[in-house]
Automatic annotation (TrEMBL):
Alphabetical UniProt keywords: Hydrolase
Record-linked PROSITE patterns: CN_HYDROLASE
One MF term in the entry's GO annotations: hydrolase activity
Domain CN hydrolase positions: 4-277
Domain of life, per lineage: Bacteria
Record protein name field: N-carbamoyl-D-amino-acid hydrolase
Signal peptide start and end residues: none
């Protein structure tokens, strides 16, 4: 067996004027708790350093950029990396990334994978950006990810770390089967996912009371259909007047939920995940080399 003990480190709300340092101390408290439970790896939510700012319409780019990190680690986030190194725990962290690339300033919704020495060993930039690009005043709150972020340009890479093959996705990515399958085709054994999911979906309020069901449905099927562990972690509770789901879960390759948070606050759920449990799925029902029929799937990439 290859055991990775994982902590799903759910966060409660982050207020708009909370400082990075305040948030980082909450992250370090969860990391310390995880260390006491013997965790190898801790998963934090999407955009885990600030409030979920795409809920507001801003015109001033300088105001928007205040939610972004220009370096990682930077002065306020370095203590988190130091704590990880001292405790010997890795982590997944979601944050808003401001990058100078191709001669221009670029904005991405990003996650990183940090190993037990505090080194960044993987980066992912969110591909499925939900919401809208223009101000829509009819909504109770905005979801302006298409305005504030560019589509990720790194594909869905996987990383050899923690004794296995680890992949990352961010929030809305978890609803798309292609996300898991592209990593499944690279042999992924554990997919780490942070999210911020409002209970209320303004264009489709009829889905509101299904938000937990859909959260579990997509991650349980993604896990089973690719013979992979999936760890999904939310920023939960009433954040600046918007209710977000918690329901952070750790899903086995069988599709079963083996660990879960039950509050809407800062909470750690822990599971001992055997990466070798992926094998009985990857070598039988979902033996891709043997049973996939890609010649019949062309439409998926043509449209
Ligand atoms: N952050 C993020 O991607 N949230 C979306 C809400 C989209 S509205 C259905 C999510 O998929 O949870």
């Amino acid at each position: 067996s290859r055991i990775v003990t994982v902590g799903a480190a759910q966060l409660g709300p982050i207020a708009r004027n909370d400082t990075r340092s305040q948030v980082v101390s909450r992250l370090i408290a969860l990391l310390t708790q995880a260390s006491q439970h013997g965790c190898d790896l801790v998963v934090f939510p999407e955009l885990a350093l600030t409030t979920f700012f795409p809920r507001w319409y801003f015109e001033d780019q300088a105001e928007i950029d205040q939610f972004f990190e220009r370096e990682m680690p930077g002065p306020e986030t370095r203590p988190l990396f130091e704590a990880a190194r001292e405790l010997g725990i890795g982590f997944y962290l979601g944050y808003a990334e401001l990058a100078e690339e191709e001669g221009r300033t670029r904005h991405f919704n990003t996650s990183i994978l940090v190993d037990k020495t505090g080194a960044i060993v993987g980066k992912y930039r969110k591909i499925h950006l939900p919401g809208h690009a223009e101000h829509e005043p009819w909504r109770q709150f905005q979801h302006l990810e298409k305005r504030y972020f560019e589509t990720g340009n790194l594909g869905f890479p996987v990383f050899r770390a923690f004794g296995g093959i680890i992949g990352m996705a961010i929030c809305n990515d978890r609803r798309w089967p292609e996300t898991y399958r592209v990593m499944g085709l690279q042999g992924v054994e554990m997919v780490l996912i942070g999210y911020n999911t409002p209970v209320h979906n303004p264009p489709a309020p009829e889905h509101d009371n299904l938000s937990h069901f859909h959260n579990q449905l997509v991650m349980q099927s993604g896990a089973y259909q690719n013979g992979s562990w999936v760890v999904g972690v939310g920023k939960a509770g009433n954040e600046e007047g918007v209710m977000q789901i918690g329901n952070s879960i750790i899903v086995a390759p069988s599709g079963e939920i083996v660990g879960a948070c039950s509050t809407l606050g800062d909470e750690l759920a822990v599971a001992r995940c055997d990466l070798d449990l992926t094998q009985s799925y990857k070598s039988t029902t979902f033996n891709f080399a043997r049973h996939r029929e890609p010649q019949a799937y062309g439409l998926i990439v043509e449209r």
